[in-house]
Write a structure and sequence with these properties.
alpha+beta, six-stranded antiparallel beta sheet, flat
Length: 126
């Protein structure tokens, strides 16, 4: 019983702290969906959160699929402005942004070994 009361108290504190941080929406533009499946929207809060997106149906390769392009921006708790551009299509979600980690370059010795393995694999397939 004490455990249940503690959990309920914790949830109520979390709920009140989350609700206290609600920001006013200063931009809320929506257009669509249209007959061709296209749409676009943009949303911005007074705290500097911005998100926009547009989508359209593409018929590449026979099967129609949705192509989505957008971006969002906000300020992280450490003060860094996060700006992410993205596309999403039949091949998945493709984000780009300066804050995203990137893999280190492949050392030349490892690349030569990978190239050698690929060549051997092709020779064995013939």
């Amino acid at each position: 019983m004490k455990y249940t009361v503690g959990v309920l108290l914790l949830l109520s504190v979390l709920r009140s702290s989350i609700c206290a941080d609600v920001e006013a929406i200063i931009r809320n533009d929506f257009d669509g969906p249209h007959d061709d499946g296209s749409y676009k929207w943009a949303l911005q809060t007074e705290g500097g959160i911005y998100h926009e997106q547009r989508g359209s149906v593409q018929a590449a390769g026979g099967e129609p699929s949705l192509l989505v392009e957008g971006q969002y921006q906000y300020t992280a708790p450490d003060g860094q402005v996060i700006n992410l551009l993205y596309t999403a299509d039949a091949g998945g979600f493709h984000p780009t942004g300066a804050h995203l980690p990137t893999p280190p370059p492949v050392p030349p010795q490892i690349q030569r070994a990978l190239d050698y393995i690929a060549r051997q694999s092709r020779l064995n397939d013939v």
